[in-house]
Amino acid sequence: MGRFGGYYSPLIATRTLLLKIPPVEPGTVGPCPVAPDALQGIKRQQTNPARWNGAGWQDFVAALRDAGVELAEGAAARGVYATDAGGTAYGMPHGVVIARSAGQISLLLKAAQTHRVPVTVRGGGLTTEGESVAFGGVLLDMSGMSRVLHIDAAALTVRTESGIYWHSLAEELRRENLDYLSAPLNLTSSVGGTLGVGGIDVNSARLGCSADQALSLQVVTPTGEIVECSDVENPELFQRVILGYGQFGIITEATLRVRPYTPLSMHYYYYSSLRTAIEDLQMLDRNDASDYSGILTIMDCAVNLLVAFDSDEREEAFQANWKSQLRGYGEFGFALCMAGHYALRPWKLREALYLLQRKREVFPEFRRPEYMREGKMHDRTVVFSRAVWKHWGSRQMVIPDLATSADKFIEAVERGNAVCRRFFAHYTLYCVGIKLRPDHRPHYEMSCVPPDAQGWAYGCEFEPMIEGGVYSRDHFQAFKNAIYDIGVDIGASYYRFGGMMKGYIRRVFGDALVDRHLAMKRRADPAMILNRDVIF
Amino acid sequence: MPAFLARAPAAPRDYAACSGCSLCLLVCPMWRGSHDPRLTPEALAKGLQSGATVRELAGPIEACSLCGACDPVCPERIDLSGLVLELRLRLANSSPPQTPQPAVMADLSARLQQAAGAAPAAGVVARSAPVLLPGPDLRADAALLARVQALLGLALFDDDGVDIALALELGVEIPQQRLHGFIDSLRGHTIVAADGLLLRQLRRWLPGSQRMGLGPALSTRAAVRSNLAASDLYVIEPRAFHGDYERMVGYYDRLQRETGCSLSLDLQRIAIPAASSGLAQKLGLAAGDDVQAKWMLKGRTPARIVVEGLADLAAFERVCDLPVVHLAELGEDPQMMQKFRHAFG
User: Fold this and answer.
1) pLDDT digits (tens, 9 = 90+) for B64-95
2) pTM of the model
3) Which residue, of A4, A79, A370, B46, has the greatest Cβ tally within 10 A?
4) H/E run at residue A258
5) What letter does residue B159 receive in the DSSP assignment?
6) Considering only CB atoms, which chain A residues are within 8 Å of B76?
7) Which of A171, A189, A385 to mutate to probe the B interface, most B CBs <10 Å?
8) pLDDT band for position B287 (cuts 50, 70, 90)
9) Domain architecture of chain A: domains with CATH
């Protein structure tokens, strides 16, 4: 039976039969039509899901109107959401709802279940695989719920609406001389979106992923119930919503752990070998030698290990015990090394010039005097995020990633690096460790945390520099596939396995786990309307 | 004149370059007041990218306060406040006009036409002498204006471009003759302007000229600077600050290090506008709100608020009982008192 997009096509049915591709019911994950060991290195097209056909839209709009839920259908309102940060998936919602309260969202979801209208939830819109792009239906913009509700400075907790951007939360916390524990190095990541997928900071090797700092949540389930959940209250829902990719409910409020604000002492070590830098990174993490650690590279030529501290005591302990074990150079020493390296390889002049240009452009961003006081960096997320958007951002971004256990990480990065070299002239790798919470194992199921990781998981993002270049979607997709194939091969996971990459879900997680989650999803979301096509 | 007055601005880019990073949203007073993503610079750029008409985008075009906070944070260097100015002009000229044109807009058009036809006023200020463009608020406060003049030792410029600044803000077309007459009259002068929007445009119209905002001009004076205290909250005039961000952020950073005062900057080092008013407030069709001024004071307990702009002074006086003073009021040095005795009663 070849029903696609609400109509019957004999041609599609015949082709489906001939190609032996089983039909896929909308809102589910079908078996991958390409075997894991087939078509290695050959472009495999992954596409946006089909646009929802709009059946029953007017009745749904009338129901929302009766319920007092404001829906914007104008071109200007919808056009804002045409794509996400990735800029390769384009869709358009039929209408937009700006989130204002859990009650309003409850009414929306109840109407959506009744009329079977897809609801796509968007926080900061920083997805890259179209996960926050609505291919028809309703786009629910959570940024309308951006209030901080209560700061408990004594208990070091904050209760906030979930649409708030981490930066806006930081602005409020700072007035109390507090800070969040960890959040993506991106000012416009939203709290709710981050808790739904993980969230990685340069302190994640010590404090875990951002999602692990959530103490409790208010969630609107796909059928519109407003439920509070935590490790002790409705723990099953808590487990599924944290790192749940928005499949099991919409987070409307969150209670998070916070901490006293501190500026950072930053140290940079430079390597010409990815392997050595990763070994040093993991050595620091294993020994709890720093408060912040991560690797940021210019291709595989200049590998920067970032090490930072919240306190003088921690910095002194590092200087006394661990610094001498690092094999990286200081900036001057590395410059001398590079000069020698390229003097012996004049045919690599262009690469050397690129490194110089990049250094000249990017380094000052991390040393802007208005963020430095007495040698310490203030507001690291602002510094990093502004630099990232200025020097890495563009209208198109593809950032495939690999998340592995500690012992597989070097292989994953080296193989991914080789793929980057094959596909793009310039690129960046960003590597961090993520400390795992043994008591949160259930949260990690079918998430970016690989099942074989113990103690720490490690993630690497492979980000090509677009630099005004024009690449086809096919080129981007072939690149992502080549990275993700490594993950299948070595038994890794991914941060971005939804949206256009969902073809990998069954291959990486296995049918049994996916089918179990699918059954849970069907029970929670009978009409399969919430964030359709992101995972299921 | 400090060296920071000499650099040319980077070439701005078009709305088509918007990558949707939302950094502009974080600093936007429209957003902070409404939490409505449709009322943001990003919504304008994305709306235009997806083919929305100027009338469909009237909401953010009219609500924008032109504080310019979005300009320096845009990683794509899009001239977002310039875009709003252009769209306001197009919106005002759309048919039928989106906003009912009140008398103030008609009067302004007539004044501009009249000024365009008039001969340039005989100058009383010597060519190349530094001049002060006080703007309407400062001009309306004679005592404060005298104090500013005394501190800066500047002559008032006859034609301070008040009509041009207002036309920019309201989206009223400026006759070329009027504009060129104004620009030509300023050539060769060092300019201190109280109106941040006018100052921003003068950077473009007179790229080689020496210009500065009233705040930096006053706060460089020892008589003023020495009276800034660590317990002060110093409120920066946002338009002038954001219009020349790279230099101003360094300037104010030094000011803060030297005086210890806290600044009205957010964590991105963007000046929070205390008095934020869109087109409706400018036209007197709606009351302004004090969301920004309240936010600036949240969790802060300054002993005194020092403002660069008179509009900010009024906003703080509405929301708190703290002493609020204009920057010029800090500089009561004996020499000035002697010279401008009349201004101090």
Assistant:
1) 999 999 999 999 999 999 999 999 999 988 86
2) 0.90
3) B46
4) strand A250-260
5) -
6) 393
7) A171
8) confident
9) 26-140+511-524 (3.30.43.10), 144-260 (3.30.465.10), 265-509 (3.40.462)
